[in-house]
Amino acid sequence: MKYISTPEEAHPIANVVFEFMRKHGFAVKIEKALDVNAPYTTTLTATKSRLNILFETQYQIHCDQSIKELALWLHSQRRYAELFIATHRLAHISWDIFRDLDRSGIGLILVDDKDTLEIERPPKNPALIISHDPTLRFGTYEKKVKTCMTKFNSPCSFISDKNPRRDAARDMCEIVEGLTEQLAIRAVKRKHITLTEKNITDQDWSGQIDTLRSQKACATGKSPIIDDPLKIDLHSFRGIRNLLDHKTSSHSQEIDRQQQLAERMMMGPRLIDRLVKLKCKI
Amino acid sequence: MVTKQSNLLNISPSNLKPNPENPRLIFRENELQELLESIREVGVRVPIAVYEDRGKYVILDGERRWRCTLKLNHKTIPALVQPKPNRLENLLMMFNIHNVRVQWDLLPMALKLRDIKTMLEKEGKSTDFNHLAGITGLSVTTVKRAFELLELPSKYQDLLLKEVEKPRAEQKITADLFIEINKALRVVEKYTPEVLEDISKTKFVDSMFRKYTSGTENNVVNFRKISKIARSENTGVKKSTVVPILVNLAKIPEYRIDQAYADTVSKAYQTRDISSKVRALADSLAKYRNTETFPEELKSSLQNLRKEIDRLLGYIK
Predict the structure, then answer these.
(1) How far is A118 from chain B (nearest CA, A)?
(2) How is chain A split into domains, by residue range?
(3) Which pLDDT tens digit goes with each residue over B277-312?
(4) Integer distance in angstroms from the first to the last C-alpha of chain A?
(5) What's the mean per-residue pLDDT of chain B?
(6) Does B37 sit within 8 Å of A5, measured CB to CB?
(7) Residue B28 needs a FRET pair 20 to 30 A away by CA distance; which of A152, A177, B178, B237 works?
(8) Cα of A131 to nearest chain B Cα, Å
(9) What is the pLDDT of residue B291?
(10) Is B30 close to A60, i.e. CB distance below 8 A?
(11) CA of A245 to nearest chain B CA: how many angstroms apart?
C-alpha cells in the first residue's frame, strides 16, 4: 500500500484497519479526501452504500485542530459519515484527548501488536444527530424525552455491535403511545367521548388515534379532539414499530433504516408537545 | 490546474511527485504534525522548488510542505519552477538543500551517497571522503560513517531501514550500534586476527548484535572495550591470553564485555593510566623549586598523597 501524507510510524496501524474494513465488505481508499472542500484528508476512507467511515491513523495520538476541523465540517454538512482516529493500543492517551474526541464526536480505534482491532469509543454520525424545536414543551415528560434524545444521539458506530438508537426510538414510541391513550381516557372522563375507559384500553394504538379523530365517538355538541394532520402524523409515527421490529437484509437497507429512525425521532417531540397541550385543553 | 506568474506557479498538489533521489525516505509524525498545523493556520508561505518532468512536477525542495498540503486538501501550492537537473546535479542538490535543515537518517543517506560515488567514478572524478564531503555539504566523519554502514550485511541494512521508521526516541537498533560493532571488528582483525580463525566476521557481528538486542549489553559504547582488549599488547598483556577470551566473548551469549575486559586488560590499563598520571604529576612538581611560593593547599594534598604512597610501598616491601 502506498501512503504519501501518512507518517511512516502510522503505516502498520493503517494496514490493519485497511484489511479489517476490506474483510467487512467496504471499499477502502487511501489518502483520498471525502470531498474537494473537505478541510482534511484522512489516511483511509471506507465506503459501503452511502456510508463513509474515515480513519486517521496515528502512532502517537493527537487530536489536533485540523482533525477537529474535519469533524466540524462533517457535522456542518450533516454527512452520513463516521470519523475515527486509529492508534496503537499502547499509545499514551491523555484525559484531554478523550475529552476532545468526545466533544468532536470522533471515535477511537485501538490496534495491538497482534493486528487485532477494537473500537474503544464509537463516533457520532452527523446525519443521525437529532434535535427538537426548543420552544416545544413536554410537561411531565420533559425528562423522559430528553433521555430518549440523548440516548439516540449517543456515539454509535455502524461497525460496532451496540446500537442504542433502536432502544431510544422504542422509548420515544412508548411515550407517544402512552400519551395517546391518556388523552383518550381523559376525554372519556371529561365526557368528551361517549366510549368507556375499558373501550379505550381494549383498543390498540391505531384504534385510539382513530377514536380521537372520530366525530361518531364524540359527545353531542363536541368536535373531534385531534385534527386530520395530527391523525396522519400519529399514524405515520406509529410506523416506527415496523422499523424496529423488522430486520434489514443489507447494509444499504440498514443505512435507510437508521435515517428513517432519525426522521421519526424528530417527529416524536413535536407530537408529544401537541398531545400534552391537548390533554390540558380538555 | 496551473496559473503562471513568471516562474512562480500555483500547482495542484496532485500534479506533483516526490523526488526519487531524496534520501530522506522517512517522514516522522511529530515533524510533519508541527508543519501541518502551521500550514493549516497560515498556508504555505515559502514556495517549494520543483522541476518539470513529463507533464508532472518533481519536488526539489519542500516535500514535507507538499505532504501537508495533500493532508489539508489544499487546491494549490506555490512553487518555483527550476530547469531540470541531471541525476548527479539532482542528487547533490538534494544533499545541499535538505541536509542543512533536517538531519537525515544515516542509512538512507548512505545509499544515496553510494549512487553519487558511482556516478563520480563514471565521470572519472575523485571519490575520496574529503571530496564527497565537499560536494554534498556533509562532514567527512558523516561520510565515513555512512560508508561504514554500507559494509553491513543486507539483513542488517534492512533491519535498520525498518527501525528508522520509528520515532527517534523509540529506536533501539541504531546506526551507531553497527558502527561501534564494525569498529571493534576491524581492530580485532588488525591486532588479533587469530580470533577470526575460530569465528567468522559475520558470526562475530551476529553475536555482538544479539548481545545488544538480548540486553546482555545495554550501551553501544561498551563495544569500544573490545578494541581495547584486542590491543592488549600495547599494555603488556600477551595476545595468547586475550584471544581465547575474545573467542569466548563471541561464542557465549551471556558473556559480558565488561567481564571480558576485567578478565584481561582492565588491570593493565589501570596500571598504565596511573603510571602516566604519576609521570605527569612528577613533571608538574619538578617545576616548583622555591618552597616559599609553594601553595598551602597543594602542600596538604601532597602530604595526603605521600601517606598513600608510603602505605603502598610498605605493602610492596
Answers:
(1) 23
(2) 8-127, 130-281
(3) 999 998 888 877 766 677 788 888 989 999 999 988
(4) 69
(5) 87
(6) no
(7) B178
(8) 31
(9) 62
(10) yes
(11) 43
Count of residues in chain B: 317
**Spatial distance between the Cα atoms of B156 and B178, rounded to a whole number of angstroms:** 9
- The Cβ of residue B28 has, within 10 Å, a number of other Cβ atoms equal to 20
Asked if the interface predicted TM-score (ipTM) of this complex is over 0.95, the answer is no
Residue of chain B nearest A43, judged by CA positions: B71
Domain spans, chain B = 1-102, 105-170, 174-268
φ, ψ at A29 (rounded to 5°): -110, 145
Question: Which pLDDT score is estimated for A106?
Answer: 96
Q: What is the pLDDT of residues B198-234, one digit of tens each?
A: 899 989 999 999 999 999 998 899 999 999 999 988 8
A41 closest CB neighbour out of B40, B73, B165: B73
Domain A8-127, CATH among 3.30.1460, 3.40.50, 3.90.1570, 3.40.1350? 3.40.1350
* Residue-wise pLDDT tens digits, A73-108: 999 999 999 999 999 998 889 999 999 999 999 999
C-alpha grid cell, residue A282: 380538555
**Radius of gyration in angstroms for the set of CA atoms belonging to chain B, rounded to a whole number:** 28
- CATH class of the domain comprising B1-102: alpha beta
- Most B CBs within 10 Å: which of A5, A55, A63, A64, as the mutation test of the B interface? A5
Selection from A240, A231, A247, A245 nearest residue A263 by Cα: A240
